[in-house]
Amino acid sequence: MKCRPGPSGKECEMKEINTGSEKVRIRKADVSDAAALIEYLNIIGGESDFMTFGPGEFNRSVEAEAEFIADALKKRNALFLIAVSNGRVVGNLNFSGGPRERNAHTGEFGVSVLKEYWGMGIGEDLISCLIEWSRSSGIIRKINLRVRTDNSRGIRLYRKLGFEEEGTVKRDFLIGGKFYDSLLMGIMIDRKG
Known about the structure:
Layout: E1 15-18, E2 23-28, H1 34-44, H2 62-74, E3 78-85, E4 88-97, E5 106-113, H3 122-135, E6 142-148, H4 152-160, E7 164-175, E8 178-188
Parallel strand pairs: 5-6
Antiparallel strand pairs: 1-2, 2-3, 3-4, 4-5, 6-8, 7-8
């Protein structure tokens, strides 16, 4: 997959995935995607306990989501990708680097895919695009993530893509009265310093 920053440092060449019955396109999010993203986020909140929010907990308005997207598009160290099939958002990845010079080179991302599209490689392609974009961004030198320790499928994917375990955060999530730990993982974009 080719995913390189353009003149502003954020453009990403699109990728098309053929799932057999339909095509899924990965592209940068745009403010016009705000309503579709809200709909998508309200669905995925109820599809997996591995999200940082549950059903009905994503309360951002369409206007606030459009502003969030516009803000991400302005930053040199941020990337907001969506996967679209037949005009419907079926996956997304949002990465944001630090706001100050001392931490602008590193950031954290979240990624999700609608349950009916699991196992098609969409999440892997979204993350691969982030890694490629980071390598050619001229600013990002490390990507971080956190994943629940019981999300073995996610952890396998992150390891496959080169992420390394860096530590554990105890009681990071509380779902249905039960605590869950998170694994901190990261990948060095370069090995300097």
